[in-house]
Design brief:
This protein has 331 residues and is mainly β. The chain contains 2 helices and 13 strands; from the N terminus they run ββββββαβββββαββ. Among the domains are: 1-94, no CATH class; 112-146. The protein is 11% helix and 44% strand. The chain is elongated. Bound molecules: zinc ion (ZN) (2 copies). One zinc ion (ZN) is lined by residues 15, 17-18, 20, 31, 33-34, 36.
């Protein structure tokens, strides 16, 4: 922030004894009408346009208030000009707060009589309901995961799948900023477009602040801060063609017996094709406690040990009826 001194001016005060207004803080230590002593606590900044400049007034520090008669005395005085008391113990007068005429007025206090409170409590209620729903949902998830009961399960069947995706190379159109265009891109066409914005200094915003010096005068200081604006930054936006692998088809092998010879499907790749991701699943089907049916996913080794017709003790979720394959123990 940049500051600039504008000048020094007199604070004003009103005589509480005879009612004379706008007396000068520096020149009128006593009321010219009735002789009453100035009260430094009653000093105020003058209205705009009624300012009285102080020329060549050296600043020695805030006035000191006489401990005997409360009259403000210059910081250089050793005895009170009003009553003659020594000023060794005298404290500096309290300065008025800085005045910033361009400051926005303080926001009005919300009026609870105007229905603001009702709106607030409705908001609070909606919030409460949302929290309640969330807590309920979390409890349900926890229960379905952890609330389990012991059950006797009998293996009724098996199934397995092994799949391999086949990917095919093709071309795709894409667009990016020039610096992000991939190396293998072809058919690149670029044009100028706004890419971002940057802040640039656009000028200065100044406030005139009045600062009480405490000796019956105040300084006017211009406080200036730079202002900024957004300026567009241009770049080259490019469209291009690029090689891209996409899933062409999925080859699948499957069966439903632990006696199967489990193998990956035979791939016959054509030109421009490659092998993609491999996935395998092993599912065991059960009868639970003689009636309900259920199933579980597991690995190939575990799957093979759960023979058809064998009976196991296990944990079953009370809510979703899903079975944890790893919890099964042979009966
Ligand atoms: Zn007076
Ligand atoms: Zn005094």
């Amino acid at each position: 922030m940049r500051t600039e001194d504008v000048g020094r001016y007199q604070m004003l005060w009103d005589c509480p004894f005879c009612g004379t207004e706008k007396l000068l803080g520096l020149d009128h230590r006593h009321c010219p009408s009735c002789g009453g002593a100035q009260d430094p606590d009653k000093r105020y900044y003058p209205p705009e346009g009624e300012e009285i400049a102080v020329e060549d007034h050296p600043f020695h520090g805030a006035d000191r208030e006489c401990p005997n008669c409360s009259t403000p005395n210059s910081a250089q005085a050793t005895f009170c000009g009003n009553c003659g008391s020594p000023l060794d113990e005298a404290a500096a007068v309290k300065r008025k707060a800085d005045q910033r005429p361009d400051d926005p007025p303080p926001p009005p206090e919300p009026d609870p009589a105007k229905g603001g409170g009702g709106k607030g409590s409705r908001k609070g209620c909606a919030f409460f309901v949302v929290v309640l729903l969330f807590v309920g949902f979390a409890a349900f998830c926890l229960m379905s995961t952890f609330w389990k009961k012991d059950a006797s399960v009998t293996v009724t069947g098996h199934s397995w799948t092994r799949s391999i995706t086949v990917e095919k190379q093709g071309t795709a159109t894409a667009s990016a900023w020039k610096e992000s265009v991939p190396k293998d891109a072809t058919n690149i066409v670029c044009k100028k477009e706004q890419q971002s914005t940057k802040k640039v200094e656009s000028g200065e915003e100044c406030k005139t602040v009045r600062k009480d010096k405490g000796d019956g005068t105040y300084d006017k200081v211009k406080e200036c801060s730079p202002t900024y604006k957004d300026e567009p930054v241009y770049g080259q936006k490019c469209s291009y063609r690029t090689q891209k692998w996409t899933t062409a088809r999925t080859e699948k092998a499957q069966g439903n017996s632990t006696g199967d010879r489990i193998a990956w499907p035979q791939l016959k790749l054509q030109s421009g094709e490659r092998q993609g991701a491999r996935t395998e699943t092993y599912v065991v089907k059960f009868k639970v406690d003689g009636s309900d049916s259920g199933s579980c996913d597991t690995n190939q080794q575990r799957w093979a040990t759960l023979e058809d017709g064998s009976t196991w003790n296990g944990k079953i979720s009370v809510i979703s009826s899903s079975i944890d394959c790893d919890s099964l123990t042979r009966k």
